[in-house]
Amino acid sequence: MPVVVSEILGWEILVPLALLVVFFGGSKIPQLARSLGQAQNEFKKGLRDGASDGEDKPVEPRG
């Protein structure tokens, strides 16, 4: 059964947030969020580039 976001937007979200603060510290969290956003943008860019290249044919193994 999939988890609905509205089901976990209570006190349950505080536990992972507290763990993030403990492990990374308050000053590292914005840097971590920024790098995750950049990684997401690069991933989406790669998906768009792959789709525009027409890579529908199977990849043959090298060797």
Summarize the topology.
Elements: H1 5-8, H2 14-24, H3 28-52
Q: How are helices and strands ordered from N to C?
A: HHH
- Biggest sheet, open or closed, and with what strands and sense? none
Distance between the termini: 42 Å
Average pLDDT confidence is 79
Task: Please state the oligomeric state of the protein chains shown.
Answer: single chain
Low-confidence stretches: none
CA-based shape: elongated
Q: State the helical fraction.
A: 55-70%
Radius of gyration: 19 Å
Number of helices: 3
Description:
The protein contains 3 helices and no strands. With 63 residues, the chain is mainly alpha-helical. It is elongated. The N and C termini lie far apart (42 Å).
Q: Which descriptors apply to this entry?
A:
63 residues; 0% strand; mainly alpha
Q: Could you give a quick summary of the protein structure above?
A:
The chain is mostly helical. The chain has helices at 5-8, 14-24, 28-52.
